[in-house]
Amino acid sequence: MRSPPPDPLAFAGAELLELETSDLRRFLRTVESAQAPEVRIDGRTVLCLCSNNYLGLADDPRLARASARAAEALGAGAGASRLISGNMSLHDELERALATWKGAERALLFNSGYHANCGAIPALVGSRDLVLSDELNHASLIDGTRLSRATVRVFRHGDRADVARQLADRGAFRRAMIVTDTVFSMDGDLAPLPDLVALAREHEALLYVDEAHASGVLGEAGRGAVEHFGLADPRIIQMGTLGKALGSFGAFVASRGDVIELLLNRARSFVFTTGLPPAVVAAALAAVAVVRDEPERRRRLVALSSRLRDGLAALGFRVGGEPGVPIVPVLIGEAGATMELARALFERGVLASGIRPPTVPPGTSRIRATLMATMSDEQVDRAIDAFADAGRALGLIR
Ligand SMILES: Cc1ncc(COP(=O)(O)O)c(C=O)c1O
Questions:
Q1: Is the dihedral of CA 291, 179, 119, 143 positive or negative?
Q2: Radius of gyration for the alpha carbons in the chain, expressed in angstroms and rounded
Q3: Probe ligand 1: pick from 135, 142, 183, 241, max atoms within 8 Å of CB?
Q4: pLDDT value of position 54
Q5: What local confidence, expressed as pLDDT, does residue 22 receive?
Q6: Residue with CA closest to ligand 1 atom 16
Q7: Is position 213 annotated as part of the catalytic site?
Q8: Could you say which of 112, 166, 269, 357 has the lowest number of CB atoms within 10 Å?
């Protein structure tokens, strides 16, 4: 008898098993309802404590109606890349609205934050340049930086002195660019932007900031951390996303007109991809108006974040992050214990994501709890009660 031929795809199962045995395998969960504070999963209604829908706009009827109207009037897709025939008047209108909101000369849409970072960074720096990158930067910044072929120096998280030291030794590099998240997605803390701008000025460097978790959330007009710190400098190139607080999908880079024109010509993730569909763009346009006109949503978010942060700290959990930021990381340590807590919370009606390596460094696994401005005090209190009960059951707190 001939033995069966070897399975050419056997590596997949083997590698999945490896992930599973180290508690690092990931699974999709299906949400059967709209993205509201409470969502339906497996037929059960649970409190959603892990969405980036910070302002509660993802299921706002005004965005949904704007989408529906745009789809009815203009169809389902852009049909081509923006530079071919896919540039529609809605794209222009949203870019103008984003530039005005951000106080920038121009903005350019990208199909997601991941696209923006992977396209814009390599368009701004190349093999003759130096990039200084915070050690906790988001994966899309890391990937964009790698694609640029620039020399990368990683600096200690938020460490001004380390940036200064590495910039002072800048050598013969043509350009230098500091790249950082402004609100760190897994830690909920802020980059020391005023210091970074000062260093960029001193050393004639650029500063590329990823405002994914700050857009719509920080600053009086919700423009982000750059507004929060009152900064204005042409060397700051701002990237923001539309899929988190703005409740829609996509991203943008805002800067001076000539920089945007360069991105439009050079950013491969802009040039070689189909334009965003009209329904998505229309929802984002409606979201910009809400963000601008309803600052009370940001105030509500600050109050809810403090309520959750204080409540969890009082229970004895190690809570990180910055007051006023709607990301509340609850440090656990090992991946296994973190996932056990996430499961125990789910059993108690709270969906909270366990974050493990490679998203965070080994030994720093955590529950990343996030708030929505549309949550009630009662819902946040319910989340705190679930943490108390699950934490005690697992021996994580007394
Ligand atoms: C800091 C940061 N940058 C970029 C992204 C990517 O944005 P998007 O989800 O629009 O691709 C994310 C989140 O996913 C993020 O947290």
A1: negative
A2: 22
A3: 241
A4: 98
A5: 87
A6: 185
A7: yes
A8: 357
* pLDDT of amino acid 358: 86
**What's the rounded Cα separation, in Å, for the pair 257 and 240?**
17
Read off the DSSP letter of residue 190: B
Considering only CA atoms, which residue is closest to atom 9 of ligand 1? 113
Gap between the Cα atoms of 320 and 318, Å rounded: 7
Helical H segments across the chain, by residue range? 10-21, 61-74, 89-102, 113-124, 139-148, 160-168, 193-202, 225-228, 257-266, 268-271, 278-293, 296-315, 335-347, 377-393
214, burial (CB in 10 Å: exposed 0-12, middle 13-18, buried 19+): buried
- C-alpha distances in Å from residue 8, one per residue of 2, 12, 25, 185: 17, 9, 22, 38
Instruction: Report cis status (omega within 30 of 0) of the bond before 358.
Output: yes
212 lines ligand 1 (CB under 6 A): yes
Which residues on adjacent β-strands are paired with residue 336? none
Per-residue confidence (pLDDT) for residue 23, from 0 to 100:
80
Q: SS3 of 3, please?
A: coil
Q: Is the CB of 374 under 6 A from ligand 1?
A: no
Question: Which residues, given as ranges, of the chain have pLDDT below 70?
Answer: none
The rounded distance, in Å, linking the Cα atoms of 12 and 157 is 35
Q: At residue 215, what is the residue type? A: S
Domains and CATH numbers, the chain: 24-53+295-393 (3.90.1150.10), 61-293 (3.40.640.10)
Q: Which residues contact 359 (CB under 8 A, 6 or more apart)?
A: 139, 186
